[in-house]
Amino acid sequence: MVRDEVTERAFVVLPTLSADGARNARFSRDPAQRLAETVGLTEAIGLRVEGSMLVKLERPHARAYVGTGKVEELRSLIDAHHVSLVIFDEALSPVQQRNLEQSWQVKVLDRIGLILEIFGRRAKTREGRLQVELAHLEYQRSRLVRSWTHLGRQRGGFGFLGGPGETQIESDRRNLRERIGRIKIQIEEVRSKRRMHRSRRRRSDFRSVALVGYTNAGKSTLFNRLTGAHVESSPMLFATLDPTVRSLWLPHGTKAVLSDTVGFISDLPTTLVAAFRATLEEVTQSDLVLHVRDIANSETESQREDVRIVLRQIGLEPDDGERFLEVWNKVDQLDLDARSALYKKAARPPGAPQVFVLSAQSGSGVDALRGGIEKRLIQGRRIVRVFLDPAASDAVSWLYSNAEVLESHAEAGRLVLSARMQEGMYEIFSNKFPGPEADFSEEGRGGEAAE
Ligand SMILES: Nc1nc2c(ncn2[C@@H]2O[C@H](COP(=O)(O)OP(=O)(O)OP(=O)(O)O)[C@@H](O)[C@H]2O)c(=O)[nH]1
Ligand SMILES: [Mg+2]
């Protein structure tokens, strides 16, 4: 599909509800911050924001979300800005969307449509594209009543902003249902392949770590720092869509796999949460999840809440201190006073889950995080020294592929191999290869091993 490089002009409408009408935390955010985020999202699909307006309401109106007077007032503003598109920063019902489009004679994209559009343009892997297409089709299915005929020309991505696909959808619901069915099957195929890869990793007993966090928190920057990879990091929102996995080497030689994931955002459309649940399987299956936060952002607390909401939606308990670690990133953006206040806040009583304060950009604090990750990962694991007959090559290769071999040497005609493995793994080994002598040391219990 040809990417439309012409910058289109857009106008942003930002409704805010009074306290009783508000149904979620996003409305309690500072409107200036909300606007900045929405402008960021709009620019992420190559649109230029020409103007914006904050609309205060008691509660949404059924007909057009905002009242008739406001619709008129906005119409003259929109006309004056010569825009071709209005971004409405809330979820609109199909009827509301159609009414607004008719009143303003421009295309209206609500928040969900906007996020779908971004995802459609960003997803690169086959799985990512399939998932976005599925979310798009399901979104379309919910609004089959709308008329798209007056809406502009074809654009890039999946053409959420108008294109031949949509009239087709309108004219053939059955076709739509069939496409959804087909895509689900294709996704299932890709997923089962990925599951195979993961179980192979699991068998080899590498621990897995995942990065999650609000969009733009610095996950990819930290990922690159930790793994030496070059994943795109950018001030653009939703820079990362497709999960990336790389090896992660820790200070005492532990090897793990680290995955970078799609960023979260407040009011992530549920269709997308569902669609990305598969991608986020990397997260749900991880031994350790690092919640990366932009601690310098004035909305950092509500972003944290939003991330925790999505985590719960994908079936994880963010209060599970065994599994989660918070990383407070971008500390370099704070002035000295704010920084020292932050370090105080980050200090935890012994035994409480630790918080890591760092700058992924400068690298300061990253080594402490590596140590912290290692310490967590080796908890409940032990090092086994196995004395083997050098001819027992099957046992040796089993250890190499199923445990983490730290060292090996020959001693009195025997091969001495030190390997770190999960509790229970040695039992599997000794059932398979009875005989060899072994001794054990336990790690991680007192937490000293990685210091
Ligand atoms: N000052 C400062 N900027 C940072 C730091 N870490 C990341 N950034 C910047 O923040 C922006 C977003 O970083 P990314 O790593 O792309 O963020 P992300 O969480 O991967 O974002 P998405 O993939 O969009 O969800 C980029 O412009 C980075 O250069 C940091 O420690 N300090
Ligand atoms: Mg990223």
Describe this structure in words.
The protein has 451 residues and is an alpha/beta fold. It has three domains: 8-168, GTPase HflX, N-terminal domain (Rossmann fold, 3-Layer(aba) Sandwich); 206-377, 3-Layer(aba) Sandwich (Rossmann fold); 381-442, 2-Layer Sandwich (Alpha-Beta Plaits), CATH 3.30.70.240. The protein is 40% helix and 21% strand. The protein has 15 helices and 14 strands. It has helices at 31-43, 68-81, 94-104, 111-122, 126-141, 164-171, 173-203, 219-227, 270-276, 281-284, 300-313, 336-346, 366-377, 393-402, 425-432, and strands at 8-17, 47-57, 85-88, 107-110, 207-213, 244-249, 255-260, 288-294, 324-329, 355-357, 381-388, 404-411, 414-422, 437-442. The strands form three sheets. Strands 6-7-5-8-9-10 form a six-stranded mixed beta sheet, with helices on both faces. It has a four-stranded parallel beta sheet with strand order 2-1-3-4, sandwiched between helices. Strands 12-13-11-14 form a four-stranded antiparallel beta sheet, with helices on one face. Helix 5 (126-141) runs antiparallel to helix 7 (173-203). The N and C termini lie far apart (53 Å). The protein binds guanosine-5'-triphosphate (GTP) and magnesium ion. Guanosine-5'-triphosphate (GTP) binds next to helix 8. Magnesium ion binds at residues 219-220, 233, 239-240.
